[in-house]
C-alpha cells in the first residue's frame, strides 16, 4: 500500500471515525488489506510514519517498481500485447508467468480480442455524421424501420473457438471433441428481414449472390413480408449495409420502382444493425436443439422453424436499444461501441 493510502486509512479510521468496512469501500480496497494496514499503523503509536517500510519475509520481487510502471505503459499504449511480448522487450531473464502475475496485480487480465470491422479515419467521420443525423430519433420512429441482411450458418457449429469444461484425461471424450468434417461440412447463406412485429421471411441464398439474385430475393421475401403484415411497399423504410449488391444500380432501380425508402447507412457499422443479434439468437436456437441437423436440407428446415419462433419481445428490446446505440457512436466519436 502506498504512503498516501496509508495516510488516508489512518485519517478516515482514527480521525473521522469511519469503520474498516466503510474505509475499504471508499478507497476501493479489500477489507482485510485496510485492516492489516490499520493494525500496523497502530503498532507505531499515535504518530505513525506512513513512509516506514517494514522488512518483508520471502524473496524480493524480481521486477522493480520502475520497471513495473514501464511494463504497464507498454501494455496500455499498445507497444506490447502480452506477457511474452513484454519478456522479449523488457524482461529477457524472466519467465512469462512471472510477468503475467505482475500484470494481473495491475488488473491487466488476459482476454481474447474483440472482432470488429476495420475503422479508418473516414469511417469514423461518416459514422459520427450518421449518428448526428439520427440522435433525435425515438423508438416510435425506429419502429417503422425494417432491418435486413445476410448471414452464414455452418452445419457443424461455429468457425471460431469453442470452449468446454473437462477434467484431466477427458480431452478425447465425445462431449469434449469438436467434430471437424473435410471442407467444413457445408454451410448455408440466408437473407432475412426484421420488423417491429417480429421476424419477416427468411430466404435461402443459392450459390454466390449477385445483384440480380438480390433483387429476386427482395421481390419474393421483402415484398412477401410486406404482404404478410399488410403493409404497402411505399411505407417501408429499409436499413441495409453498404454491400456492393445492396448499392448496385439494379437494386437502386428496383427500390425506386417499388417506392421503398432506404435508411442512410454508415460504413462498417454492423453494430447499428439489430438483425446481427437476431442471427446470434437464431444460431443458438439451432445448436441447442436436442437433435442437430445432419444435412444442409435439414439445417434449412430447422433455420426456418427457429426463425419463425424468435421471441417478438426480444426483438422489440433490440429496437428499443437503437437510441442508445446512436448515442454510443457519438460518445465514441464514430469509433467502436459495445454493441
UniProtKB/TrEMBL annotation:
SUPFAM superfamilies: Homeodomain-like
Pfam families tied to this protein: DDE_3
Protein name as catalogued: Tc1-like transposase DDE domain-containing protein
Domain of life: Eukaryota
MF term (GO), any: nucleic acid binding
Tc1-like transposase DDE domain span: 144-298
Amino acid at each position: 500500500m502506498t504512503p498516501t493510502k496509508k495516510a488516508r486509512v489512518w485519517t478516515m479510521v482514527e480521525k473521522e471515525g469511519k469503520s474498516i468496512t466503510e474505509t475499504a469501500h471508499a478507497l476501493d480496497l479489500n477489507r482485510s488489506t485496510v485492516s492489516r494496514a490499520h493494525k500496523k499503523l497502530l503498532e507505531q503509536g499515535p504518530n505513525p510514519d506512513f513512509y516506514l517500510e517494514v522488512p518483508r519475509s520471502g524473496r524480493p520481487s524480481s521486477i522493480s517498481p520502475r520497471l513495473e510502471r514501464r511494463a504497464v505503459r507498454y501494455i496500455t499504449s499498445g507497444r506490447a500485447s502480452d506477457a511474452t511480448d513484454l519478456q522479449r522487450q523488457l524482461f529477457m531473464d524472466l519467465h512469462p508467468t512471472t510477468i503475467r502475475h505482475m500484470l494481473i496485480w495491475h488488473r491487466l487480465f488476459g482476454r481474447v480480442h474483440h472482432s470488429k470491422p476495420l475503422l479508418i479515419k473516414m469511417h469514423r467521420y461518416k459514422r459520427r455524421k450518421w449518428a448526428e443525423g439520427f440522435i433525435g430519433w425515438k423508438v416510435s420512429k425506429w419502429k417503422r424501420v425494417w432491418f435486413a441482411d445476410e448471414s452464414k450458418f455452418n452445419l457443424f457449429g461455429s468457425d471460431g473457438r469453442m470452449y468446454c469444461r473437462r477434467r484431466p484425461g477427458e480431452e478425447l471424450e465425445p462431449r469434449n471433441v469438436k467434430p471437424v468434417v473435410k471442407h467444413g461440412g457445408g454451410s448455408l447463406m440466408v437473407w432475412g428481414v426484421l420488423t417491429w412485429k417480429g421476424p419477416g421471411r427468411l430466404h435461402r441464398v443459392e450459390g454466390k449472390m449477385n445483384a440480380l439474385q438480390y433483387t429476386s430475393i427482395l421481390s419474393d421475401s421483402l415484398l412477401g413480408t410486406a404482404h404478410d403484415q399488410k403493409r404497402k411497399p411505399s411505407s417501408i423504410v429499409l436499413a441495409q449495409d453498404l454491400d456492393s449488391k445492396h448499392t448496385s444500380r439494379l437494386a437502386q432501380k428496383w427500390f425506386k420502382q417499388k417506392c421503398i425508402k432506404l435508411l442512410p447507412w454508415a460504413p462498417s457499422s454492423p453494430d447499428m444493425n439489430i438483425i446481427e443479434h437476431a442471427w446470434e439468437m437464431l444460431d443458438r436456437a439451432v445448436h441447442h436443439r436436442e437433435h442437430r441437423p445432419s444435412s444442409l436440407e435439414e439445417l434449412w428446415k430447422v433455420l426456418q422453424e427457429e426463425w419463425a419462433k424468435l421471441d417478438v419481445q426480444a426483438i422489440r428490446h433490440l429496437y428499443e436499444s437503437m437510441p442508445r446505440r446512436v448515442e454510443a457512436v457519438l460518445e465514441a466519436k464514430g469509433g467502436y461501441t459495445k454493441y
